[in-house]
Amino acid sequence: FFLSCQSTMRFSIALLLPPVAAFAPAASTTTARNNAASSALRAGSDEYVVAVLGDLHIDPRKLEDYETGRSHFLPILGEAKAGGKGASIVSLGDLGESKNCGHNPESDSELFAGTTQCHEMAAEFLGSFDVPYDVVGGNHDLEGLDEFETDEENLNTYLTAHNKETPQFCREVADKTLLVGMGSTIFRDAVYTSHEVTIDQEQINWFEDILQTHPADDGWKVFVFSHAPPNGSGLRVLQENHVVNGCCWLNHSNEKQCKKFIELVREHRCVKAWFSGHFHLGQDYQDSITFPTIDPKDGPYPNRGSCVFAQTSVMRAGTSRDGRQQSRLLRGTKEGFEICTVDHQDDGKVRVDASITYRDDTHEVGVYAHEDEAYDHDNYFKVYQPQFDDHGYVCGDDEELCILTPKAITEETVAWWKLSCGRVLGVVNGMMLEFDKSTLAPLGLVVSGDELLGKQVAIVDSGLEECMINFEEDGMDGADCADGSELPEDVKEQAVLVFDDDGVTVVQPNADGSYWRKIVRNKIARMKEKRREKAAIDFAQSHLPVRSEDEAREKIMSTWGPYKSTSGVAKSTGIEGKVYTS
């Protein structure tokens, strides 16, 4: 047992730390430790029960829902332990509320999320269920900006509070059944938005090693936990803001790392399920669970290995984006497993959502246990995911001219296309988005609605014949046109155009060839920018003929790099319009 996950194994301790001792432990500290150990050591059983908790966002002023949720799980876990089953809890991160919660008398602005107090309170709560717990870091768990200068300091406090040696974890909950988790380790140092869930390369290497050393052919079954889902999961329980801000998937802004997770799932059929949170949306829709295969009438084979992906909701009412308060329950045997909902708004009622039966070590059959419980869910999220040859596929990659939208674009327009270079773009919800060229998952915003609505989109060839290079002949004909990023011979250079009667806008790709705009910088950078703009407002009030702060704000604009034209000469850094945001 201990050889499977020895490097990251740990047992939980019910912490009683003032002034946050708000959750009564189920047993004394010593008893809890002993029970946790004995529960783990009975992992020779092939039956197991795992409570999966979504984004907690604990607010020390509003603890009632956590007590209620805990009361729903205690009998479930207690019965499992009494029956000799493996029993455990996994928290999917985002442990504290990203607001000032009146927790620090010395500051009325400090956020609770990411603070020492936050992590100690979360550890106390998670340690009070009388079974081992594990946790993965979310995008808010290193947000202790006032308390810690660096991500490393913040991460060390998080690890210490939860008795963890590393951000990742591995636990053998039953015979040849592993619970494996990876957590985000970057906030202040994020290249783009701080709310991207970033798994560092060391954890990715560790994860790959776990999968390689626990193959399905030897009977191993691995259940994975992360705060955000991986690209390729097929989950559609998304919110538009996560898509357009580039924080929807694990390592969203790093194209190579972003696709690595689904590549590992496809390669290693020991991965049986992957649980994630992040979106604060409920579990009453079939879109919140995806199976490895789908009915051929519903589309092409999605290539998700042997893995079922499951979205997890939230426990506290104030954190729900669709009014639901739910957690996941994983129940398994050597024959298969069930993914269930524990409904905290219905006295902890347990509902089976999906049943998965193993046919052999590398194949399984999944069945949804019910139809959608809430048909109004499109009011909460509207993320269209294209499929090749569906009704929205309007142009191939070999047409010289394609008018993608014969009529002016509205919020109901659905159209998508594949460029010759393989990039996939589409119009949905009045915006132009980029989609992953392998999984067709949405990646991010290319053109916003204010620039796109009422216009049309066309794709035209843009490579000049005299600039084409024949790679089969000697010499450097056309080298004067080359830019060092030549495409293969069979790939045409194309231009994406947005147009109406008043003009044409060229949608230029990013330097790396992608199109989705990585607009949002990390939170530290944005805080500094706001402080600079506030200084400009103060200056304007002192030196310009303005009568109020609001009038001064109207006079402020900012400018950013790195470039804004196709000119080879630096002539202007000006921008149009007021860009100050309070």
Written account of the structure:
The protein has 582 residues and is an alpha/beta fold. It is built from eleven helices and 22 strands. Strands 3-2-1-10-11-12-13 form a seven-stranded mixed β-sheet, covered by helices on one side. A six-stranded mixed β-sheet has the order 4-5-6-7-9-8. It has a five-stranded mixed β-sheet with strand order 14-16-17-18-19. Strand 11 and strand 12 (349-360) form a beta hairpin. Helix 4 packs parallel to helix 5 and helix 6 (201-213) runs parallel beside helix 8. The chain is globular, with a radius of gyration of 26 Å. Mean pLDDT is 82; it is low at 6-21, 25-43, 377-382, 465-487 and 577-582.
Describe the structure concisely:
By secondary structure, the chain is an alpha/beta fold.
- Tell me the number of helical segments per DSSP (H or I, 4 or more residues long): 11
Distance between the termini: 55 Å
Q: Kindly state the number of beta strands.
A: 22
Which regions have little confidence, pLDDT < 50, spanning 5+ residues? 6-21, 25-43, 377-382, 465-487, 577-582
Helical proportion?
A: 10-25%
Structural class: alpha/beta
- Shape assignment: globular
Biggest beta sheet summary? 7 strands, mixed
Q: How much strand content do the residues show?
A: 15-25%
Q: What does the average pLDDT come to?
A: 82
The radius of gyration computed from the alpha-carbon positions, rounded to a whole number of angstroms, is 26 Å
Side-by-side strand order of the widest sheet: 3-2-1-10-11-12-13
